[in-house]
Design brief:
CATH architecture of the largest domain: 3-Layer(aba) Sandwich
Strand order of the largest sheet: 3-2-1-4-5-6-7
Number of domains: 2
CATH class of the largest domain: Alpha Beta
Strand content: 5-15%
Structural class: alpha/beta
Distance between the termini: 30 Å
Number of helices: 17
Order of helices and strands: EHEHEHHEHEHEHEHEHEHHEHEHEHHHH
Helix content: 40-55%
CATH topology of the largest domain: Rossmann fold
Amino acid sequence: MQTLQNERESICILPGRPGNMGDVRVLCTCVQAFKKEKLLFITYEHGLWDVLVPDVESISLFGRKRRTKDHHLGGCGKLLRFIDSLFRLLWNFPSVYGVLRRSKQFILLGMDNLDGHYDVLPVLHELLLARMAFWSGARVDLVNCSFNDHPSRIAVFALRHLPSGIRIVAREPVSHARMTKFLSRPIVLAADVSFLFAPDVHTQNSLQSSIDWLRRQKNRGQRVIGLNIADIPDVPIERLVDMCVQTIERMPQASFLLIPHVKYGPKYMPDEERLLRRIISGVSPEARKRCSILPFPYDLSDFQQVLCQLDCALTGRMHLAIGLLSADRPVCCITYQNKFEGLFIDYLRMSELLLDLNAAIADGNFVRPLTAMLSSQNEISQRITEALPMLRQLAARNFL
């Protein structure tokens, strides 16, 4: 971590735990949006964001210690962790508050955490910082917010009682309707900021080996499909792994690039690379020749060129889906908590890209939706191309 300069005037952004490439895409977009500003991240994880998003200074909210594992605990353990985090926050308060006092704008990335579904305690930390920044005279924006239909009552209370001068932006119409209902305050409707991501052009692509593999598969007459799976509530992960194995086995005319999008350090947290290797180990030797795993982590600009080589993809991750849409590629989305409906139904008017998971479970594979998407690939790509300018215009509302 670099040393902060006293005269610095900063825009502060609070990202979550490193390991989610969707978060990295959002943060890189923020860096691009404020490229003329002096940008600072206030983080939970000391120093790690400096590696994933280079050339941006950061300061740890809790000093040199790592973020508390609040979401992994329950009862008294959660309470003790919360008390511990408050003490560490107070200990590091002078440096954090000094940054807030020098900031002219404070941006809190709401993402899908602000409703308290995963853990309400970080939400309280973040909203406390937002209040402090507002009291210090900074402009405060809560942007790129998603909201489920059963938010934490504590999170709702804290959000509802924020100062009226704090601006809240929803990233799609479903979340906008929910936030308006629960918070009883004006909510700005926008689209996800990551639609504004502009890939850099590098002289050498760090993922060139994956691009070459995809091109070789195409030269053999194969269709190339991106495959990503995530932990889906109420669906055993073993079932999803088996469905992916059966999909690969039953589509010999297709080759599959397995794409990890999330990999956190602790063993009890999501690790999609581990899940994808389980898929590889479950397929036959013949099918294994038609599969490749993308190395993780990866540079997002280089990764965007990989996405451009795909015919289509299957994913349960919103920001991977947005990356594919930005490359004009059809994507079949495994939905949960209504995370995709606002984008794909209300904005894109393309409900056919939302997977009927119950039907897929009944089939035991994803062959039917992928085959249907491949058969209408050109038509879908054209509709996506026509919708992208509107989505980028909506996304820009986050930073107005």
